[in-house]
Every structure is written in C-alpha cells, then in structure tokens.
C-alpha cells in the first residue's frame, strides 16, 4: 500500500532546486501557483510549486512535489518512492551546488579538492584567497 508523506528539507533556492533536479535527469514542472500532485491510484494529493511527474521515475507510485513555504520547500513524496526518486541524492547534490554557488560567486575562495567519502558524503576543500 502506498503512503504519501511530507518531508521538511533544507531547500531554500528554487532556481538551484530546479537545476539540481535537471542534473539528476528530471524535467520538473515549475508553477507560480501551486498545483495538485497525483498520488497513488491517480488521486489528487497536496499542492506543490515544483513537480516531478511519476512517469519520470521507473515504477513510481506518485508524483514528487516541492511546496514553497515561508522558509523554503516541503517535499511531498510517496514513502515507496524515496529511493526511486533519489531524495538523499537530491539533498546531497543540492547542498554541493549551494556551496559551489557561494564559492564561485566570489573571488574569496579557491576549490582545492572534491572527494566523495565512504559514507557517500561530498567533501569540498577550499582555501581563502588573500
């Protein structure tokens, strides 16, 4: 049985979110006014501003929706789809993109190395330019 859940995540930049989803191979829909996402069995579920349709994920039960809030986004996702969608990968890649946006947006830092450790965490080493 399918079960939709809402996950609070540290996603605050819609442009960066959409870029990260595209880099993961998705074609997200972006809506200024939130639209209903489709849950299990075709039922309308919560509303979201950024939507990845279920047909973009092999065997998915429902769309994945990102709802704008005052502090960022909530993710509406079927519990059975979190691995198919790659929610942890999204959070990791978004975090890396956010750090790189800061580093590349200024001449204050230079990236020295980027490694993925045994726990699949990304480690970026940067130095301060004087």
Describe it:
By secondary structure, the chain is of the alpha+beta class. The chain has one domain (4-128). Helix content is 25%, strand content 39%. The protein has three helices and seven strands, in the order βαββββααββ. The strands form two sheets. It has a five-stranded antiparallel β-sheet with strand order 1-5-4-3-2, with no helix packed on it. A two-stranded antiparallel ribbon has the order 6-7. A hairpin with a 4-residue loop joins strand 4 (64-68) and strand 5. Helix 1 packs across helix 3 (87-104). The longest helix is centred in the last third of the chain and has 18 residues, at 87-104. The radius of gyration is 16 Å and the shape is elongated. The relative contact order is 0.18.
Query: pLDDT average, as an integer?
Result: 89
Biggest sheet descriptor: 5 strands, antiparallel
Q: Ranges with pLDDT <50 over ≥5 residues?
A: none
SS-based class: alpha+beta
Percentage of residues assigned to helices: 10-25%
Largest sheet: spatial strand order:
1-5-4-3-2
Approximate shape: elongated
The gyration radius over C-alpha positions equals 16 Å
Strand content: 35-45%
User: What is the string of SSEs from the N terminus onward?
Assistant: EHEEEEHHEE
Q: What distance separates the N and C termini?
A: 57 Å
What is the number of E strands?
7
The number of helical elements comes to: 3
How many domain modules?
A: 1
């Amino acid at each position: 049985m399918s079960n939709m859940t809402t996950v609070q995540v540290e996603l605050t930049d819609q442009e960066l979110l959409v870029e990260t989803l595209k880099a993961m191979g998705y074609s997200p829909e972006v809506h200024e006014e939130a639209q209903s996402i489709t849950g299990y069995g075709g039922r309308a579920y919560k509303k979201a501003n950024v939507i990845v349709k279920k047909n973009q994920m092999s065997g998915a039960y429902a769309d994945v929706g990102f709802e704008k809030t005052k502090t960022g986004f909530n993710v509406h996702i079927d519990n059975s789809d979190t691995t198919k969608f790659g929610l942890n990968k999204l959070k990791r890649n978004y975090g890396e993109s956010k750090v790189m946006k800061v580093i590349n947006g200024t001449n204050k830092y230079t990236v020295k190395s980027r490694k993925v450790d045994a726990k699949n965490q990304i480690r970026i080493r940067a130095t301060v330019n004087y």
